[in-house]
Amino acid sequence: MNKKSLLVIFGKDFPSKPKKWYRQFDEIIGPKELQNFISPGSIQQAYALSNKLSRFILPDGSRLSKLVNLQGYELWWMHYESIHYKFCLPYTQYRKLLFYLKNFERVSLFQAPWPHLFQYFLRAHDRRCTIISQFRFRNLLPVPSGVFIQCLLSLGFLLWLKITRPALMVRTSDKFDPPYDFDYRQKFIYEELRKRKIPFVEFIRSLESSMTVLGHAWRRKRPVVYSTAIIGFINSFANCFGRYSPPFSNIDPEERFWFQVSTHYLRNIRGTIWSIRVMKFILQWIGVKAAITTAGCNRTFYEVLGCKLAGIKTVGIQHGAIPRYYFVSDFMPEFDGKKPLSLDKYGLWSNWWRDYYLKYSRAFKPEQLGVSGHMRPLERKNVEEAAPSTGPVKVLFISEQLADPKEVMPYLLALLLVKDFALSLKIRPQRDGFEDWLKKNEPGILERIKVLKGDIHQAISQSRVVVGSHSTSVLEGLAQLKPLVFFWTDRWGDYFDIRTFDFQGRFFAKDPQDLIDKIRKSIDVPKEDLIKLQEQFFGNPYQNGSKWVVDQAVEFLDE
User: Fold this and answer.
1) What is the pLDDT of residues 72-97, one digit of tens each?
2) Domains of the chain from N-terminus onward
3) Closest CA to 483 of 409, 418, 389, 547
């Protein structure tokens, strides 16, 4: 350890401090220099880390995952996915920086993206760590004003719901896509429920502004429960009663660091248990008998466990082609508890996906898994206009918010230089992170490329080949038997293990030139190969999985 103090500045803004304040630091790492310490990270490495943490052994020889138990449910697993996303994956990105920080006695971090990760690492190595943030008035409030407003709305709606007593709960978000008054991703579920005139109540996770929340509530004109806001309020309240600190005496810094990471979400276990019990109470107060939620994951486990404690059956459906490396709550490879936290019935797109879950997942038992078809099935009207087979090769490049733009840009720029390619960029209908990055860093790119914001199926129907690093939207080209090519990034690797399939590597590119070559050769891909992949990932792309979900919910209601 050579130097005493270091300041690391994340983002583009500097602390609003006088020059004298900066002189206290022996070294300052600014935003530009910081890039030398950050990598894209690796999903596969993060997966290995989260698996390792789930096997963490306490001094008494017991597994950490079994430390907290609520009526047979091991609550550590509720936050397994959050540990994966918010600690293990960022660790693979910032590992070089973390180890460099050990050279200093005092470290100050301005606008650090994952503050707890840095705090736990530095404290485990006996370094002083200070997190500095820009002052915001809302940080002075015990709970955000938006959470408070949603809780007040929920209280008023609960009286209404006590009278109407809908027997079905639907867990959803607060995102609207005009002309719908619901989350467009669940369009077919809502249409099926309304066609059958099944009364339901929505439990909503809203991240929208207060004005948007109020606007959406007015547009719905039906009572809802803002469950995530209620859970957030309860957790904040529970914090006032102190935090739980699991005992651990290991003096090894690395062991101390990973122990703090593993127990991060157990520190407010009182809030977790209270939240589950409040969800149980609300569900019983309303009179819910069955529940639809797309998945059991870190965002929904409070409601799911509330249902389980109340004896309410739950049903969900695969909402993306997400392998075991990322959506870890669906797999939990080291889980050995007696009571699974997963949904009672879970629909998968195809027999291949069911076999995949049976092979890699310990979160589900075989009887919980069914083959439902796609949540958003392909409609024949989406594909009436086919892309012409002559002229430039129409390439659809999928915007991926979770990809590192610096890894994606070499591929995008290489395709722009190919004269016989007609390149389109498909972005999300709502705010798109990659589009925002392009506007900020490469605005000229958007002027040279056709940008599509509409329906993904329509965009695919107008293209010859679909490319991307990991998105389900790339795979959706198979629903229309369009060739696809995934490309390598350090962050996502071979996300679907597509190179292990027996297709002579024609669907995966290792670098930009290889991507160009694979796109050119895609014209000659045998249709039989595309049909085989389509059946593997999607089964029957026209099968309405949302109808399957509602059918299962109706069965639960009739029990």
Assistant:
1) 999 999 999 999 999 999 999 999 99
2) 3-140 (no CATH), 384-538 (3.40.50.2000)
3) 389
